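Why does residue order matter? Because the sequence determines the fold. Keep that principle in mind as you read this record.
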Amino acid sequence: MMPKRLAPAAALLIALASPSRADAPTPSFPESPTANPSVASTDDAAALHVNPAAIGARYDTELFGAWTDLESSDSRFRVIGTNHGLGLGWDDGPDGTGSYRFAFAGGEESMRLGTGMVWNYDDEGHMPGDVSLGAMSRPHPWASLGVTVDHLFKPRLRDGRTQRDWTLGLGLRPLAMVRSKAFEHGPRLTFTADVLMREDADLEQARLRFGAEIEMVSGFALSGSIEDHGGARLGVTLLSPRLGYHGNMAWQDNDRRYFENAMSLHEGEDKSAIGRRLMSRVVEVEVGGQLADESLTGFSLLDGGSATETAGALHRTLEAARRDPLTRGILLELRGVSGMAQLEELRPRIAALRAAGKPVVAWLPYGGGRGDLYLAAACDRVVAAEDADFGGLGLRVERRYWRRFLDDLGVRLDRASIGRYKSAYREYSVDSTPPADRQAIEHNLDVSQDLFVGALTQDRGLRRADVLRILDGRMWPPEKVREAGLVDTLGDHATALAVLGRLAGLGVRPATASPGDLVFARRAWTVPTRVAVVYASGAIETGSSANDLLFGPTLGSETLIEQLEDAFDRPEIEAVVLRVDSPGGSSLASAQMDRAAEKLKREAGKPLIVSMGGSGASGGYQIAAHGDRLYADRYTRTGSIGVLFVKPSIQGFLREHHVRQDAFERGRYMRGWSEGVDWDAELQAAADSSVAETYRRFVTRVADGRSLSYAEVDAVAQGRTWMGEDAVRHRLVDEIGGLEQAIAEARRRGGVPEGEEIRIAEYRRPRPGLLARLIGSYVRDTWERSMGLPEPGALYNWADDTDEY
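Structure:
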């Protein structure tokens, strides 16, 4: 059965067809610089002559030059250049003939469309321009379909008006039908079949061409094709990672017709053993800033100007370096990196590089903090500048209390919460740290310190006492840090490269590349999308994701639910991963997202795996509670199961400044909502009762999702924030692991075969376009959203402890 995605191309072919005439001339396949010029499989620069839809499908950029020895001792020269979806070409043939070509294409694997134009010339001048259309669809790793329509506008040439030619091609890769081998072995064997039909020709005049390509070893391939009306081609291809040689011979009626040599230079690397040693290099990667799941910028009253850098790009770079046969080592330049949960997830990437025989050297040009040392400890060697600074490497948490200051202003913050550890906003209503808060802070400081010191002692083979001495908060010269064993060598950038070059076997001056150079040829026809990752980052609010003046970037319930619905509805997606990095927020929004996630996974019959990054606390934990399996990093702040309600009151300010306030109401407790009224005992009791009911629902939902009793959840709830391993012990989390482990679990539960190459469908925070930002309605909505404070009367599942330990 023809896949549904191929139907439009077939329908186009049928719709353009007209009644045939037996006296119409038999068409001929056009000349092309390849041994198997199928409209379904040709996807390098030669696609300019074969199917314009395939321009840019294999390489983003390519330069192709060919020289052809014809039978009559004449020659033809071809030059083709492509850049993404644009292609330019020039042919210079015998007897003053030639052509100029231009094409552009776009689309995705499911459907690519392209248009090509050619202007021919000879000794008598230029002929009218000719236009062709092309389509290509690759719905599976093993199937490809191409369609072209040549001479679209039937240009009148010197020998008369041309007729339209249609070509339909089918490509098959039988080795790619084995899902676990589709990406690695699928491209090694390709079969093609093309049929060419002229618009007014009889069906019996259709021409057929069958072809094949086999990659004998990596970088060496044989290809060929035969035609039913006579004629055959045979070619050989030699590919180094960035350079290729193509040679092919063509016969017509069993006589040799021509021999062609071609060279290509392309941006994307081909996997090949040819020339690999000569092109070996190390990759320099710069890492700095606060790492998070998403790159966020914004301003908030609580956090001031804040910005985070996405860790995803770094993960992709390190994985690409591991798979790249040319990359022999990595130089990590650490420039003040933080985000301990994200750094913990990067350390296995470094371990995988080292296991693959690719050394990693950390270079600290300015010294480093805890994050830099934590990541550097996972590397083979650590090099620091001779004037580097190392200081403040311990831990410190500060709590400031503002109750008396607010009293002086005549301002009060009324607050109701459940859980003796639920401390958010408590600094505005008390004068010192309560015992429960002190207990939680001290415990998490101990856990964080033990994790950090344990990693450094194990990775670097150090004594615990030596590491703790460097973590006492003093400023340490780099020589002392080296003597303590946290740094191996002092020197400059060249020193770090030399250390890496020797470890990688490339000498003291290895060739270098940047992450932008890790671009690979798209050899596989289709990399299927089997798993979706939906990112849930920021403070939780109802409505759409935006930026809040108080909390900064927010996670909107409507936005996340829409993304989850789309992920679960897509038939090709077998499992969904919910990646949570949120301290919580609106109780209502959290509950809505929790119920939507549970409902969607049940109705779709697909697994939902949860991965928690830096924070999966309070409302951030609630939206994760009904995942089939929950993962957290050891540094993840988890739990904080509790509810609070806050309301500022300026009654004292109004009284002190002689502002009279009259009230008219219906309802015994309506005064409790007013910002001009302090809560009395009756109002406090009413608020406590409402918060207690919301807390009961929260704990009940967690108990249901985690298959625990209410009492078991309540015992570890009470607003308490736990680090990752504590959360596992209390059964709030199933396993310690990062996003990669969650994706692996999603693959397993989704029935994706081990070893199958897949693409991840990512759902991130929507970013408005420039036009939307300029129009008035958007500006108004953004202003209103940015000026928002907590909604009056809203309950919040808000994590108390947002400090990074």
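Residues 12-22, 770-777 have pLDDT under 50 and may be disordered.
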